[in-house]
Amino acid sequence: MTLISSPTAPGDSAHLENLRISGAEALMDALRRHGVETIFGYPGGAILPIYDAVHKAESQGWLKHILVRHEQGGTHAADAYARATGKVGVCFGTSGPGATNLVTGIATAQMDSVPMVVITGQVPRPSIGTDAFQETDIFGITLPIVKHSWVVRDPADLASVVAQAFLIAASGRPGPVLIDIPKDVGQEEFDYQPIEPGSVIPAGFQRPASADLASLEDALELIENAQRPLLYVGGGAVSAGAHESLASFAERHQLPVTVTLMGKGAFDERHPLAVGMLGMHGTAYANFAVTECDLLIAVGARFDDRVTGKLDTFAPRAKVIHFEIDPAEVGKTRRADVAVMGDVGINIAKLLELSKQKPVEPKTSAWLARIEGWKARYPLMVPPEEGAIFPQEVLLAVRDLLKPGAYVTTDVGQHQMWAAQYLRTGPRQWISSAGLGTMGFGLPAAIGAQAAMPNEQVVCIAGDASILMNIQELGTLAQYQLPAKIVIVNNHWQGMVRQWQESFYEERYSASDMLPGMPDFMALAKAFRVGGLLITERKDLRPQLEQAFASPGPMLIDVHVRRGENCYPMVPPGKSNAQMVGLPAHPELAMDTTRICGSCGVTTAHEHRYCPDCGGTL
């Protein structure tokens, strides 16, 4: 093998053209040309030639490889790196079980539209199809969960494949791609011809078309004439960097804004126009607003079932404008009256400029006043300071201690929903598995976010069940001394499973109690050589969290909370968003606002214009 030297600067590889080098060295040079500085991965037999080239790249100073303790942790870390930076995340895994361990993380990135290049080792070319040791058809396994994939059979193709991979992963609706490299392809030497980023366009590749002026004009006309409009903002607005134009447009037209779990950070939730997250565990006022609106402006959102509830009662009297980059999402579950196709960031900016061509006279004052009334009547719970610590108290304390530039990652479950309800983050600062709901995501995601943003505060909100799925990544935190803080909201249950069993399965708590076999998390922290802190008393909650957050190193903070607390509001499955359970009781309001539906006879205790059950007029 020819050693890649760097006579001019670390990582400078312009001199590699026409040199005879190995496929592994060519791969590393191609990655360097695409701006890759950090890779998350775990070595193994089939990928060893590539890891030998990784060693050389690290010695040259242009690459940092972070050794995770499980390949799934590598995918989640690369995923979070991409979400935090807007760049393409990169992770490595070997063949066979190394490759299959990546699948959950690839599916997580696909569901949440995260750009990621996953590179796997494979058995040598002559052994493919022979059931060789650690051979798995990872190309075939991952076909449904990637944007594109390759098996590289000629090292001369590597530079072109990498260029295509980065282009496809990051363009249009972002997502993961996979490159499978047989071991002998990494070893084979050839005359290398570098390829610069963007210089190879895959066959059939098309960049998203720009929105036509007519669709923007139609959208603006609907917005100007709406009396009860609502901006419904999803993760597409975050990945498109649409937040500044979105805020300006909302303020100009006085539009209330609700966000999805993926859309958190796209609009400042402290803003008077913000109504928080909508959907199954959204705020009551967001869910009432979407039920009552006459115009729904979807921006980079896909009408997910956890958002819509019973689909035919979702915004039942509203016209729909859909800003979307992926044509497959338009009309998939809800017909759009106006579809504005293309890059969401560009199109919202164009809409704003179009709006500025004439004076605007918002018609939303009565609508905003009505929403303010809902906010006053149905606020998120402020826990009483009595008994065991409420989980909501933990999130309120964390919220007070978050720095302005802090990044928050979460696991999946009740704690995730409480974090979404109570925490406020900026663009790209909320990192959570939404579409796939991947338990075990939060800790490795904190590693990826902290690696991406070494000078920023990173806090992971975890559950006691979720954290155990990738607890081994404490070793990664320790090795690289990444100062992320892991806060376990510990109720000794699979909390969301228990809540559903209580609500819908007559309190048959099957296989959801985590107390038997629960580890001593402080002993685990000590074993992994990271800081540990146990909090069981309310009086210790804020001062000890403050102490832990001020620590310069990684910390595992175990906060014991009351066991039976449920996450409310909650839209039961199959119900309208207006049919939430767990709202604060206001008997006098219920008495004053009870109405009967003229179509189905259902009585509702909320001040709706339309029936939350059938959509009929009240």
Q: How would you portray this structure in words?
A:
By secondary structure, this protein is of the alpha/beta class. The protein folds into four domains: 14-191, 3-Layer(aba) Sandwich (Rossmann fold); 213-377, TPP-binding domain (Rossmann fold, 3-Layer(aba) Sandwich); 391-560, Rossmann fold (3-Layer(aba) Sandwich); 585-618. It is built from 23 helices and 22 strands. The strands form five sheets. It has a six-stranded parallel beta sheet with strand order 3-2-4-5-7-6, sandwiched between helices. It has a six-stranded parallel beta sheet with strand order 11-10-9-12-13-14, with helices on both faces. It has a six-stranded parallel beta sheet with strand order 16-15-17-18-20-19, sandwiched between helices. Helix 16 crosses helix 17.
CATH topology category name of the largest domain: Rossmann fold
Mean pLDDT: 93
Beta-strand residue fraction: 15-25%
- Approximate shape: globular
CATH superfamily of the largest domain: Thiamin diphosphate (ThDP)-binding fold, Pyr/PP domains
Tell me the count of domains: 4
The number of distinct helices, counting runs of at least 4 residues, comes to: 23
Précis, in short:
With 618 residues, the protein is α/β, with parallel strands linked by helices. Helices cover 35% and strands 16% of the residues. Strand 12, helix 13 and strand 13 (319-324) form a beta-alpha-beta unit.
